């Protein structure tokens, strides 16, 4: 069995800095021999992403700005990718957003605008980018998104983002059903809590991490690299029989009862 991703090209969406889970995925795919295409939300993230890519030992990465709230931006990005590389073999969707003041207190207080914003960026975007990416995945491929336990169970303070993750999980399954006939698989990794820019917005995040260290079967939080390695598995031929699946990479925390 060949584990190499040499000759393959993957789009990684959502690297904000070196702590991003997307960066852990990018490194794993790079180490397996893949060529990388990075998309970032706006110009603020361009330099950090380009600087990180410079640390990789190849210089053929490509970079595109793509705000996933903008359909034209999504379509233009994937048209440009098609023109520039012809075909891609996978896509990592590592994007989420909710208003910080709605990631604490009670879910029921979520505003209408905040609810729609979280769902737009964190869930609908998977459908939108999958549709656009399909036209560039002419040899079939693999789409991986990142979800969290808060979409399956109530996690204090996670609130509207948990509800958006439930929507993301369902979006992933419906997309898997639609795209299977094109040889495109769609799966999710449910990552345990990791200290990233986004995670900082979740109220009392430190106590969530502490709970993992004390109670998860493996007694330690997961790392970006551990999530990246599972993304590599999902992008590779090893997982060719899987689609519509949620894999928990969370030190085993999700098996616990209260
Ligand atoms: P991060 O802040 O590094 O990444 C989030 C990314 O989303 C950023 O790059 C940001 O620019 C991007 N983004 C936000 N709005 C966007 C928009 N309109 N258009 C394009 N991009 C946009 O944080 P992260 O923790 O690495 O998050 C990546 C994914 O992992 C998210 O879906 C998050 O919910 C998920 N996740 C994180 C954890 C955790 O504990 N960190 C756990 C499980 C799942």
UniProtKB/TrEMBL annotation:
Binding site for substrate: 98
Reaction catalysis annotation: a 2,3-saturated acyl-[ACP] + NADP(+) = a (2E)-enoyl-[ACP] + NADPH + H(+); a 2,3-saturated acyl-[ACP] + NAD(+) = a (2E)-enoyl-[ACP] + NADH + H(+)
One Gene Ontology biological process: fatty acid biosynthetic process
Residues forming the catalytic site: 148, 158
Pfam families from the UniProt entry: adh_short_C2 (PF13561)
Keywords of this entry: Fatty acid biosynthesis, Fatty acid metabolism, Lipid biosynthesis, Lipid metabolism, NAD, Oxidoreductase
Keyword NAD: yes
Family matches, as SUPFAM superfamilies: NAD(P)-binding Rossmann-fold domains
Catalytic EC class: oxidoreductase
Quaternary assembly: Homotetramer.
Signal peptide: none
GO molecular function: enoyl-[acyl-carrier-protein] reductase (NADH) activity; enoyl-[acyl-carrier-protein] reductase (NADPH) activity; NADP binding
UniProt family annotation: Belongs to the short-chain dehydrogenases/reductases (SDR) family. FabI subfamily.
Protein name according to UniProt: Enoyl-[acyl-carrier-protein] reductase [NADH]
Organism placement in taxonomy: Bacteria, Bacillati, Bacillota, Bacilli, Bacillales
